[in-house]
Structures are given as C-alpha cells and as structure tokens.
Amino acid sequence: MxxxxxxxxxxxxxxARVAFYEYGLRTHVVxxxxxxxxxDRYRDGSLDFNFFYDRGSDTSPEFMELxxxxxxxxxxxxxxxxxxxxxxxxxxxxxxxxxxxxxxxYTIIIPxxxxxxxxxxxxxxxxxxxxxxxxKPANTTGGGIGVIxxxxxxxxxxxxxxxxxxxxYLLQERIEPLAxxxxxxxxRGFFCCxxxxxxxxxxxxxxxxxxxxxxxxxxxxxxxxxxxxKISRIIRLNFFSTEIALNGQxxxxxxxxxxxxxxxxxxxxxxxxxxxxxxxxxxxxxAAHVKVNKKIRTC
Length: 299
Fold this sequence. Notes:
This protein is an alpha+beta fold. A hairpin with a 2-residue loop joins β9 (186-192) and β10 (195-202). It has three domains: 2-79 and 286-293, no CATH class; 106-173, ATP-grasp fold, A domain (Dna Ligase, domain 1); 177-259, D-amino Acid Aminotransferase, Chain A, domain 1 (2-Layer Sandwich). The strands form four sheets. A five-stranded antiparallel beta sheet has the order 11-10-9-12-13. It has helices spanning 9-23, 35-44, 64-72, 81-88, 90-99, 123-129, 154-160, 213-219, 222-235, 276-293, and strands at 2-3, 54-55, 107-110, 133-137, 148-151, 169-173, 179-180, 183-184, 186-192, 195-202, 207-210, 239-246, 252-254.
C-alpha cells in the first residue's frame, strides 16, 4: 500500500492487520521515506508484490513510477489511475449522473479562464442559479480547495475562476436539505468492493454521525444505498464516497459527485473523522478483496 499522508497510518495499519490475521497476507507500506528504496528493490527483484493499493500518486506524482511498474507487470490495482482521474472530473461526473437519471443541483459548466477569459452569464442564467450560488473547479479537488460559496454576480465568477485558470468550473445552485428532528438530511455514502455504507454528514462542520438502521427505517432512507450502488456501476471504481442531500420534496440530490480517494481518519482520534465502525468495515472489505483478486504467481 502506498500513501503520502501521515494521517493514513491508522487506516493502512488496520487493513494490514486484517489482511495478515484473517487472510495470511503480508503488507509492505510505501511512504515518501522509503519510496525510492521500494522502487529499487522491486526493480532488482528483492521485493515483489501481488496487489497494489495506491493512495499516494494522486497528490504526489513521484509515486507514479511504482504505479507504472505494477501496471507493467499486471499486478492487480484497487483502482487504476486512469479511472480515478476520469471519476475526479466534476464536470464529467455531472453529465454522467444526469445522463443516468440521477438528480444534481442546477449547474452551468464553464470553460477554463485561459480559453475564455471574458465570460458573462445572462440575467436569465444567473436567476436560474439563485440569488446565491456555488463556484467550484472541476478537477482541483480535496478539502474544498477552490470552492466558493455565496457567489452572487458575474464579477464573482470572473474573479474566482482565475484561481485555477486552466480548470473548468461548475456554477451550481445552493441546495438546502430537509431539516427535521434536529437533523439536516445530508449524507456521505461510501462504496467499497461491493459494500455500501452511509452516514450523516454536516458539510458546514465536516462532522460525521453514524446512520443507524433505526434512522434508515424511521426516515425511509433505504434508497440512499441503492443510489450509491448505482453510482458504482456508472463510474466503475472499487472505492469512493459521495455526498447526497435529501430536500424538502423528498428527492435525493447528489452534491459532491465522487471523492475518489477517501479520507479514512478515525472519528475516535479526530473530531471530523469517519465513524470507526465504517472505517473498520471498509478495511475488512479491502483485505477480502485483495485475497480474492491478488495476482497468482507460478514457479
């Protein structure tokens, strides 16, 4: 497993522990400190591996060499970089979701500033977005980077789309979720190798709360799970998360389409982490997936 983020350690160790004790699999963790050593050892044959889970190449290009070596030798990879890159484009995902009958906020996709610097919406188009709307880059992702909430005018669009001049931008209406029983009906859905789990999610505070079976039954939220499964068939990733809001009309609306590299910090250690039960379920599912799909080597 390759990772470039120090806060991945608990998740990576959990997968390694399950893989060893339940399936007899050994794990080699690749971090920036041992990346070059790992590449050298793989090239000279003193290190080999039968499955590769890459959580580093998306943010640290130097990890791509290891990814390329795995692809060269037909080592199974949890998700290919090509598929991850395709799924990370919010403009592409918006169109894919709409084409497959999924609801999304009213959205206008605009070209990069470098291709069309002077771009102004008509009053009609601005009105469709609402009095206050969201501006977000299509490909610059992670932790809300570049996302502007509360935009109102063409001047806002002109100003903020210059932050990432080579990126497409999405202009989206603001979605207000159903509020009931002290809850805002905003959710995070996870898909991992066939497993679907969901939790309450507060995008204002970045706080998760476990979605219990009682909640699902009480508020009739069963459709959440089938919707996440439907996304998996569209984007063909083994592991991703998505944001879904339930509005006052009882409609599920996809807000942030695909998070292709999920933050798996434990809630027991980080206030804004993912509930431990969900992280554990996902770690177990990945280990089981590796056991079934690892490369079989013959002498």
